[in-house]
Amino acid sequence: MLVLISCIQSVTNQTNNYMPWVVALIIGFASAGINIWMAYRNEKSVNRQMQNLRDLSLLEFKKKINAENRQEWLNDLRNQIAEVISQASRIILELSDKENAEASTFSAHAQNLMFCQSKIQLLLTNPTKEEQQNLLISIGDFIDFITKNVDGKLEDEEAEDFASLKNKVIDDARNLFRIHWKEIQELK
């Protein structure tokens, strides 16, 4: 029994001598494991942040392109509406001076007017929207008025109708531009 106690004491003394080394070794392995685990978590976090940044950059790029395209569309539509009003006014001026009017000039203005109307119809791709539908109707009424009055000089009442229809086109166009300008600002 004494031998057993002495063996145990001997082992205990030896274990006590190695204990700081064992603890240091355990701490070393634990810290290495924790560092590996933290590096893995950080890498996942960085990858997630990079993906979010890529997605955000792509979204901003798409918004910018959409805003630029919509602005270009509005500018083209504005130009076509101005051209319709301009050509219609030229036709009315020629009607008022029928003696000096040339048929070829009148025909050119009328063709240009129809071309612009067709282009506007193509530019307004969603005529089910109320603002687009209103603009198409007012332009149609405006052009119908011009074509119905080709045969003679406009009287004062007809000149007022012309001005009223022209103002209706302008008001409907402004309404459409206002709505789409707000959408452009929301895209930016």
Shape: rod-shaped
Alpha-beta content class? mainly alpha
Radius of gyration: 41 Å
Could you give the count of β-strands? 0
Elements, N to C (H/E)? HHHH
* Helical residue percent band: over 70%
- CATH architectural grouping of one domain: Up-down Bundle
* Number of helical stretches of at least 4 residues: 4
Q: For the record, what CATH class of one domain applies?
A: Mainly Alpha
Summary of the model, kept short:
The chain has 188 residues and is mainly α. The chain has four helices and no strands.
Question: Would you mind describing this structure in some detail?
Answer:
It is a single chain. The longest helix has 95 residues, at 2-96. The protein has a domain at 60-187: Four Helix Bundle (Hemerythrin (Met), subunit A), CATH 1.20.120. The termini are far apart. Helices cover 89% and strands 0% of the residues. The protein is rod-shaped and about 125 Å long. It has helices spanning 2-96, 103-123, 130-148, 156-187. Helix 1 (2-96) runs antiparallel to helix 4 (156-187) and helix 2 (103-123) runs antiparallel to helix 3. The protein has four helices and no strands. It is an all-alpha fold.
